[in-house]
TrEMBL record:
InterPro entries: MFS_dom (IPR020846), MFS_sugar_transport-like (IPR005828), MFS_trans_sf (IPR036259), Orgcat_transp/SVOP (IPR004749), Sugar_transporter_CS (IPR005829). It comes from the Eukaryota. This is Solute carrier family 22 member 3. GO terms for molecular function: monoamine transmembrane transporter activity; neurotransmitter transmembrane transporter activity; quaternary ammonium group transmembrane transporter activity. It is found in: Apical cell membrane; Basolateral cell membrane; Mitochondrion membrane; Nucleus outer membrane. The lineage of its organism: Eukaryota, Metazoa, Chordata, Craniata, Vertebrata. It comes from Halcyon senegalensis. One of its GO terms (cellular component) is nuclear outer membrane. Keywords: Cell membrane, Glycoprotein, Ion transport, Membrane, Mitochondrion, Nucleus, Transmembrane, Transmembrane helix, Transport. Residues 103-516 form the Major facilitator superfamily (MFS) profile domain. It catalyses: agmatine(out) = agmatine(in); (R)-salsolinol(in) = (R)-salsolinol(out); dopamine(out) = dopamine(in); spermidine(in) = spermidine(out). PANTHER family: SOLUTE CARRIER FAMILY 22 MEMBER (PTHR24064). The chain crosses the membrane at residues 21-42, 154-171, 178-198, 204-225, 237-258, 264-282, 347-368, 374-395, 402-421, 427-450, 462-486, 492-511. Belongs to the major facilitator (TC 2.A.1) superfamily. Organic cation transporter (TC 2.A.1.19) family.
């Protein structure tokens, strides 16, 4: 009986059928990037706001004050009496009642100056000039509550982490396309609930669930694409990530056009429902079907692929070699039971962690520049495009391992140089830091491809999901590592990033080269890699 790769070569390794499926699934990269980076715009600083004195709302309504007039009566005297106070996180410790004068409300307190009036911290009653522009103004995530905005992103990353384990496992057990479709449905439904959350707790719960399902869509679509193309075309996995970058560049445009956070949340969530039409357009992975002893279904799909590609399968292709490896529910021990699998798993987990930590660290470091948020965000996405182009130019010519190692080492050296460049030449410092961003972006994109190619079909989705979960852990740690170490010395995070990246570059040289090699079907195939 012919092997799957032999049948695939006969049916077409990257014909019209695969190109159509590939283009359809690439759209998932755009919507996933929306979810991944949306907090930048959902949590925008609310602009002008102040703490309202108890009773001020009633007085304002009785006196017919505008918001500006109320602000002048409450915040301006506070600033005059206490120059260090902005009126955002503290207020005068007074209460206005019906006896307060509309013309001069503070005259109620006699000859006392505003500087002698007591102050108190503000815990509620903030007034925003744009009350529904972001979740910050919607849920009062200011002053003492500001840390809750960071919590919302940490919760999303925790959802990614849980999704990697649970849905990665489910996709290996119940099928790629089933879990993909359920995940798309979950992202859409949870996104709508997030947009209409009545309080911050509900917002967090369904943002977490959106993260779980979002990770399911991203990882599963990536695996489907790599399993239906030939070994020479698996570089399409890199192109999927170019669509992620495209989403990063589109997002600020959507945020600019949609003025409220609820509208933005709906705009980035509703497209996921369109992916449900893929039920009729994208087949189950025939590789996965073979591992589940469903050879007839796999062969039927291969005949359909051949038909759409203008090819014809020979009559002797009545059966396909089915994996002899006993199918069981995958577990972490399956990934570390044998020597080569163990080495691959540990190195890939470290590579995922390092890539995410440094990538997000450098983004946050370069992003604290002020200026136009929408334009800066667009440019930060555009910087990533050359990384994918460099990969496309090198990975099929010289292999995976060397570009993987060099990109990490370049990122590490760039971080080290940036740390010791003087502040009086900011253009050079920014240029070298951008080179580090380019290097770590390349490493981040290559690890997806290499991870997929180093695991057998029976463990591929679970293996990719498990290893990539370290990416989410790195994303959770990155802001804490960056800001805590920067408090000691501004450039200290770059030193840590440098050490982590160079070490990663050395370790990935221990991985086997997978250029031009068929995807492994069994653990034994992986152990035979040299």
């Amino acid at each position: 009986m012919p092997s799957f790769d032999e049948v695939l070569k006969e049916a077409g390794e990257f014909g019209r059928f695969q190109k159509r499926v590939f283009f359809l699934l690439c759209q998932t990269g755009v919507t996933f990037s929306f979810l991944f980076a949306s907090v930048v715009f959902l949590g925008q600083a609310p602009g002008s706001y102040w703490c309202r004195i108890p009773g001020a709302a009633e007085i304002s309504e009785r006196c017919g004050w505008t918001l500006e007039e109320e602000q002048n009566f409450t915040v301006l005297p506070l600033r005059l009496g206490n120059g260090s106070s902005t009126g955002e996180c503290e207020r005068l410790d007074i209460v206005w009642d019906a006896s307060v004068s509309c013309a001069s409300p503070l005259a109620h307190y006699g000859n006392r100056t505003t500087g002698s009036l007591p102050l108190t911290a503000c815990h509620e009653n903030w007034v925003y000039k744009q009350p529904h522009s972001s979740i910050v103004s919607e849920y009062n995530l200011v002053c003492g509550n500001a840390w809750m905005l960071d919590l919302s992103q940490a919760i999303l990353n925790l959802g990614f982490l849980i999704g990697a384990f649970t849905l990665g496992y489910a996709a290996d057990r119940y099928g790629r396309i089933l879990i993909y479709l359920l995940s798309c449905l979950g992202v859409g439904i949870c996104g709508i609930i997030v947009a209409f959350s009545s309080n911050f707790t509900v917002f967090l719960i369904f943002r977490f669930l959106q993260g779980v399902f979002g990770k399911g869509t991203w990882m599963t679509c990536y695996v489907i694409v790599t399993e239906i193309v030939g070994s020479d075309q698996r570089i399409v996995g890199i192109v999927i990530q170019m669509f992620f970058t495209l989403g990063i560049m589109i997002l600020p445009g959507i945020a600019y056009l949609v003025p409220t956070w609820q509208g933005l949340q709906l705009a980035i969530s509703l497209p996921n429902f369109l992916f449900l039409f893929y039920y009729w357009l994208v087949p189950e992975s025939p590789r996965w079907l073979l591992t589940r002893k469903k050879g007839e279904k796999a062969l039927k799909i291969m005949h359909n692929i051949a038909k759409h590609n203008g090819k014809y399968l020979s009559p002797h292709y009545s059966e396909i070699t089915i994996s002899n490896e006993e199918v069981s529910n995958p577990s972490f021990f399956d990934l570390v039971r044998t020597p080569q699998m163990r080495r691959n798993t540990l190195i890939l987990m470290y590579a995922w962690f390092t890539s995410a930590l440094i990538y997000q660290g450098l983004v946050m470091r370069l992003g604290i520049t002020g200026g136009n948020l929408y334009l800066d965000f667009f440019i930060s996405g555009a910087v990533e495009l050359p990384a994918a182009l460099l990969i496309l130019l090198t990975i099929d010519r010289i292999g995976r391992r060397l570009p993987f190692a060099i990109s990490n080492i370049v990122a590490g050296i760039a971080c080290l140089i940036t740390a010791f460049l003087p502040e009086d030449i900011p253009w050079l410092k920014t240029t070298v830091a951008t080179l580090g961003r380019l290097g770590i972006t390349m490493a981040f994109e290559i690890v997806y491809l290499v991870n997929t190619e180093l695991y057998p079909t029976t463990l591929r989705n679970f293996g990719v999901s498990l290893c990539s979960s370290l990416c989410d852990l790195g994303g959770i740690i990155a802001p804490f590592l960056l800001f805590r170490l920067a408090a000691v010395w501004l450039e200290l995070p770059l030193i840590i990033f440098s050490i982590l990246a160079v070490l990663c570059g050395i370790l990935v040289l221990l991985l086997p080269e997978t250029k031009g090699i068929s995807l492994p079907e069994t653990v034994e195939d992986v152990e035979q890699f040299s």
